[in-house]
Amino acid sequence: MQIQKLIFIFTMVVCSALAFPTQSKAQTESTHSANSQTQTKPKLTLDEFFNSVSFDAIELSPDGNSVVIATERADWDQQIFRKDLWLWRDDGKGGSLIQLTHSGHDSEAKWSPDGKWIAFLSERKTSTEKSGDPDSDSKDKDEETSQIYLIPTTGGEAFPITQGEEEVHDFAWSTDSQAIFFATRQPWSKSQKDDYKKEWKDVVQYRTAERGDTIFSLNLASALAARAAAPAKTDSGSDKEEDSTPGAHPIAQTPLRVDKLLVSPDGNKLAFLTNSINQRQEKAEDVELYVINFMVSRRAYDNKGNPDPDRPKPMRVTNNQAVETHPRWANDSRHIFFTVEVGDVYGPYRDLQPHLYLVNTDRAEATSPDVVPGAVEQWNKDFIGPVDQYAVAGNIVLASARIGTDVQMYSAAKPSDSLHRISSWPGTYAQISTTTHSSKIAFAYSALDKPEEIYLADSADKLNEARQITSFNKLFTERDLPRGKPYQWKADDGTTVEGMLIYPPGIDPGKPEAKHLPLFTFIHGGPADADGNHFEADWYQWAALAATNGWLVFEPNYRGSTGYGDKFLMQIVPQLVSRPGKDILEGVDALVKDGIADGDHLTIGGYSYGGYMTNWLITQTTRFKAAVTGAGAVEHIGNWGNDDTTMDDAYFLGGRPWETAQRYHDEAAIFQIDKVRTPTHMVAGADDVRVAVLEDYLLEHALFSLGVPNKLLIFPGEGHSLDKNPWHGKIKVREELKWLEKYGGVPAGN
Fold this sequence. Notes:
Elements lengths: L1 H16 L7 H14 L7 H4 L4 E7 L5 E10 L4 E10 L6 E4 L6 E6 L5 E6 L2 E3 L14 E3 L2 E6 L6 E2 L7 E6 L5 E7 L4 H11 L12 E7 H10 L18 E7 L2 E7 L5 E7 L13 E5 H5 L16 E2 L4 E9 L5 E10 L11 E5 L15 E4 L7 E7 L2 E8 L2 E7 L7 E2 L6 E8 L2 E10 L2 E8 L9 E2 L5 H4 L5 E8 L5 E8 L13 E7 L19 H6 L3 E6 L8 H5 L7 H16 L3 E11 L1 H9 L8 E5 L6 H6 L3 H7 L8 H6 L13 E6 L8 H13 L3 E6 L10 H19 L6
Parallel strand pairs: 33-34, 33-35, 35-36, 36-37, 37-38
Antiparallel strand pairs: 1-2, 2-3, 3-4, 5-6, 6-9, 7-8, 9-10, 11-12, 12-13, 13-14, 15-16, 16-17, 17-18, 19-20, 20-21, 21-22, 23-24, 24-25, 25-26, 27-28, 28-29, 29-30, 31-32, 32-34
């Protein structure tokens, strides 16, 4: 009895720590009612804010009765962002949620079609010998290499089924659940590695030494048999393909990197999406969709894996100036859906909002990679906003799509149909998951005052009856969260521009106290993005914390933002910072004129493109008392050369640096930096490629030479997304809040 009692107490403590619901709905409502009578909700603290849980992905089981949920949260002791998998099951009693994996390095979960297995990628550390690898001198021996793991849905420990020094880029199940296809960089034998190191030592051959991917097929029964047999390790001195998984057979090669693999519903075709080897967006033709005849290609290799020279070649099915993303097969096994991150599928490169497209793969027997099998068709051309995410449910498509400040869920049965709104909760829908043998839909949902959680609906027509199946962010419901509303103003050219106003907790936007508030203009990145009615709690989107600290937060959706039509988005060209800058300043003017903002207490900030705009705007006015900027360029020539997305840089400014030199000059903050009087706080990742850290050093040096108060924080090991060490993001926001308070003139606790 004592042991059982201790187990019960331990279980309750763990559930509480993970924010699991441990009370019935009636009990919870009763507790909330009692609390509301005795005390008001406390405000969020900095520590609480950074303990939020985000959802990377959700995957419904084939029967619709279970959901795998991929979470990410800060692990302060290990100084990492933990990536774990959770399994929710419909047990007939309201459902149960268990932690499926515990390594902190797990993602990309995919159910086997028969529902017996869950495969996922894991970067669990493995000790491997790197001798001869051209990359070995830049890696530790205890290297995190992404490999495929399996876990049975009936219970048990996860185990790897791939191995080697080359990480798995993506994988897909066969439709009969008997095989897994995966892609890695072309493995080298030991002799190849030794020869390379002998000639090149530790010299990095930028670009020229890279190699493309191989797609393999791995029979599940063979993999399980190999695991059961647990053969002794082969002598590491033998000349063999050390990086190859035993039993894996190559079925195709590409000179590019494979980002996505997907098997057609009938099992006869394997599609893959490529990217540049170094993952820099320099040529649109590096990112295309290909299809191979799976059955024929698998027979095109002998027992040693040697390719038949007459084997069918992968056929390219897209050929455009766009960066395709999120491909999915249609149920007819003939068409592939995809969205576009940047670019245009119909003509010369130009940035549009993410739209949904469909391409025909009927001529997949063609042997020439230059033959395009069918025209690309845009889905729902009349929809004004971007399609953020989508899923295929039977013969219809479900999409989360943005109009203005809300992201709702829509459906359509064919490309010519208008998207029909099927959701009604105000806020943001995301992470849609459907399955073949069930009408159920899983999705993530949040609003400004409602933290993001996962929901499950019985069907598309019952979204409003969806039940919440997670409570990871329950703590936030027990805090006094800010409220907000959209705000519109007129630009100088007559265009209506919109943004969000986030009010400090306890202030009703419609009451007299919502006047003459200190203002923090918080600029989103992208620029092709938008702020709206959604809940965010991280180092990048910390409007809720700024509002909690007394600021009225203004989030402008300037020209170049999504949700207002392609024309609105493209008006940023070629005025990369000057046109959005006018929109933002005119929004600030309108807020002061309307008596909403206090003109004597104006501050500004942003990260990435929000940093670009902050750097520009402090050269255009001295009205801002404080600025906080991160990873923002102050010039465009060096950034064009360093950025890993150079296609859009040249597009935004009308050409490469030597083609439109004056525009590169006119749209750069550095050439007007002598006008700056605003105390400026800067942050940067030491290993940032998207916006090189040299831009921050340049800004800091300029401000230092001018005698403008400034501070620069450099986060070691971090790239653009600051996703290595959670302490870096927390320190970033902590210091930015202090800076706003110090120079913005707002007392602590206001």
